[in-house]
TrEMBL record:
Places the protein is found: Cytoplasm
Gene3D superfamilies referenced in this protein's UniProt entry, alphabetically: Nucleic acid-binding proteins, P-loop containing nucleotide triphosphate hydrolases, Probable gtpase engc, domain 3
UniProt protein name: Small ribosomal subunit biogenesis GTPase RsgA
Keywords from the UniProt entry: Cytoplasm, GTP-binding, Hydrolase, Metal-binding, Nucleotide-binding, Ribosome biogenesis, RNA-binding, rRNA-binding, Zinc
Binding site for GTP: 112-115, 166-174
InterPro entries linked to this entry: G_CP_dom, NA-bd_OB-fold, P-loop_NTPase, Ribosome_biogen_GTPase_RsgA, RsgA_GTPase_dom, RsgA_N
PANTHER family for this protein: SMALL RIBOSOMAL SUBUNIT BIOGENESIS GTPASE RSGA, SMALL RIBOSOMAL SUBUNIT BIOGENESIS GTPASE RSGA 1, MITOCHONDRIAL-RELATED
Species assigned in the record: Amphibacillus indicireducens
Entries under HAMAP family matching the protein: GTPase_RsgA
Its EC number(s): 3.6.1.-
Description of how the protein assembles with itself and partners: Monomer. Associates with 30S ribosomal subunit, binds 16S rRNA.
Length: 293
């Protein structure tokens, strides 16, 4: 019995990396009986007499997992948002950040296409960046000229499993090609009609880059909060953290309750109004979700 990590899943096959060798495997039928689905990033036990006819026999315990993109055991997320084309969206960024916080994955915000914004557009964008830095998120800015400081990205990625995720068309695949030109990942132009990117990544795969593993994932433009319960949502906003213990009521949802320290911090502009408005939108979205049985 060998141990390894699934680095790619495609057409019913799982590609398991073990001691620098990749084995093509299928999953044993027992996974269907237990309703387990192996994910890219899973550490597994497997049997293999050769490189092409192995079988995954057991999933080892996961640190975390994401539903979309389907990937497990992630240390950090590079959340890619573009400065322009498609337009920077703090609400969409906050959806990603809620999911990373819920899954206890450290998020690093990657703002792409910085060179496309003019001086007037740059003023509000830099304010957004400052806001996210203030609440503890690391922000990395890159341009369409695609030049990166290799040392800084080695420090960022080495010995980590990283998922790179974001709206279609923000430049995720171009960024990965920059980190490792041998990848030659397909990229596509922005759809002029839709104002967003075409999907170029069709499966999730872990790729070795700068001493770490990074997941290229299919792009998506909407995210839901199916796994998140209403009482968990406040803990997904890290800017609420230093205030919530001062709320009058334990379990305060920071919506209608009196003597809410979070709402007081918003009134004092210690928490940004737009982040709180996103919180209220997400709150209503989860609250109106149909019950699951």
């Amino acid at each position: 019995m060998r141990k390894g990590q699934i680095i790619k899943a495609l057409s019913g096959f799982y590609y398991v990396l073990s001691d620098d060798v990749i084995y093509q495997c299928r999953a044993r039928g027992l996974f269907r009986n237990t309703k387990q689905t192996p994910l890219v990033g899973d550490y597994v036990k497997f049997e293999a007499d050769n490189l092409t006819d192995g079988y995954v026999t057991e999933l080892l315990p996961r640190k975390n997992e994401l539903v979309r993109p389907p990937v497990a055991n992630i240390d950090q997320a590079l959340v890619a948002v573009s400065a322009k084309n498609p337009l920077f969206s703090p609400k969409l960024l906050d959806r990603f950040l809620v999911l990373t916080e819920f899954n206890r994955i450290e998020a690093i915000i990657l703002v792409t296409k910085m060179d496309l914004v003019n001086d007037e557009e740059k003023i509000p964008l830099m304010q957004y960046i400052a806001d996210y830095q203030k609440i503890g998120y690391q922000v990395v800015e890159i341009s369409t000229e695609w030049s990166v400081d290799q040392t800084s990205f080695t420090n960022l990625l080495k010995d980590k499993s990283t998922v790179i995720a974001g709206q279609s068309g923000v430049g995720k695949s171009s960024f990965l090609n920059l980190l490792n030109p041998e990848l030659s990942i397909e990229t596509a132009e922005i759809s002029k009609h839709l104002g967003r990117g075409k999907h170029t990544t069709r499966h999730t795969e872990l790729i070795e880059v700068f001493g770490g593993m990074i997941a290229d994932t299919p792009g998506f433009s909407s995210l839901d909060f199916e796994q998140i319960e209403l009482e968990q949502l406040p803990f997904c906003f890290r800017d609420f953290e230093q205030y919530r213990d001062n709320c009058k009521f334990r379990g305060c949802m920071h919506v209608n309750e009196p003597n809410c320290a979070v709402k007081a911090a918003i009134a004092d502009r210690e928490i940004t109004q737009y982040r709180y408005e996103h919180y209220l939108e997400f709150y209503q979205e989860i609250k109106s979700r149909k019950p699951r049985y």
